[in-house]
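sanity check this:
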Amino acid sequence: MFARFCYALSWLLFAPLITLHELHAAETKVLGWRDLIPFSVIKAGAVLDKLGGELSAMPRAERTAFLMVARELAVRDKLAAGSHHDELTKSERKMLDKNLSADYPEALAYWGKVKRARAKVEALNAAVVGELDGQRIRMPGYVLPMEFEGVKVHEFLLVPFVGACIHVPPPPANQMVYVTAKKSFASAGLYAPVWVEGTLATQAATYSLSLVDGVAPVVAGYALEAIDIKPYGRQ
């Protein structure tokens, strides 16, 4: 949920500047992060948003009952995953004994829809926009260095918001671009956005990202050979 908020925020932040650059060289396509998401993913996400809206619109008592059923279902999933009944907390055992879901079949149906919608979104998270393969593009983002010497960066992950992969879980694969720079550039840090230009490839791969507490594998759905990298504020 936090990650989706960050994607939306990144779109609002970068959209005005993207508009200013629409007259850039005709052969170069200016992209925002939303452009990297296939319509099928956006459509699946819209279903989840609609279901969330339905829950928010319920009267308080009904919404509370639905949320209690969700907690009960989470406990049942925990048992189904291998946990023993003796490992449950007192409140979890009490929840199972109460069996509120038996009195709210409509809540069971609702959470079934949510579960299916989430599974669809997760299954599509690695999907990319095939039409972008081989296109020369220009887009903004934040730099997560992967190969560097001091402040000189040679390879990095371009991500839509500050702290991606570090302070919060990694974005979906279609929201990360693996960038190789023809010439190393001086990075101003994790909080300094950049414009990156080059040829985009729909080339999903797993990369090792070095963190303070070790190395973590991340999957990027796109790769880009950068011919130009500039600070975000420059034309």
About this structure: Strands lie at 29-30, 136-149, 152-159, 177-186, 194-201, 205-211, 214-220, 222-231. The CA atoms of residues 211 and 229 lie 24 Å apart. Confidence is low (pLDDT under 50) at residues 16-26. Residues 60-80 form the longest helix (21 residues).
